[in-house]
Amino acid sequence: MWNVAKTADSTPRDDAIRLLARRDYSLQELTDRLTARGHGVNAVAEALQQLAEEGLQSDARFAECFLRDRLLRGHGPRKMLAELGQRGVDRELARQSLAELERDQAIDWAERAMDVLQRRFGSVAPNQIPPRERARHERFLAGRGFDFEQVRRAVQEWQRQE
Asked: What separation in angstroms does the CA of 139 have from each of 41, 142, 150, 154?
């Protein structure tokens, strides 16, 4: 299913380290991948606990890297939190990580949403947009994970541009 080079004597720890050498993974992602490779659930849990104790696997570090990546891709906070939840990151940890990112980057989500609109629809004269097209832009931003208020502010600011 997933590309993890497994040799005949490969342990869950070995496979986990190979995965973590490429990028950070959440605990749930690693568990899923290792059990899919045929490792026993108990052996996987034991190996991952040891890796976490050694600082080689961390859901907090994974969340931080994941959020920074999604921010660069133009995703909003709602989608980011939902995707972290899908990857098994604790809800409170995800919220804390997002709050730290917002504080460190001084993020104005409405401004980010407007930037996403400009990148996607920049060639359109924003002050000439018909209501149907405006609704399309709003749905686009909502699908990217921005909340109602952020979408409303972004579309209004974008339309004010000349």
From this structure: 42, 5, 12, 12
Asked if 158 and 114 count as a contact pair (C-beta separation under 8 A), the reply is yes
Q: Which of 115, 151, 116, 120 is nearest to 135 (CA)?
A: 151
Structure-block tokens of residue 54? 């050694």
DSSP E strands in 19-103: the ranges are none
8-state DSSP, 127: G
Q: In whole angstroms, give the CA distance from residue 66 to residue 63.
A: 5
Residues of the chain with pLDDT under 50: 1-2, 4-5
Residue 8 has what pLDDT? 57
- Please give the Cα distance from 77 to 79 (Å, whole number): 6
Angle at which helices 27-36 and 12-22 cross, to 10°: 130
Domain extents in the chain? 12-53, 59-105, 109-160
CATH 1.10.10 fits 109-160, yes or no: yes
How many CB atoms within 10 Å of residue 3? 9
Could you say which architecture CATH assigns to the domain 59-105? Orthogonal Bundle (1.10)
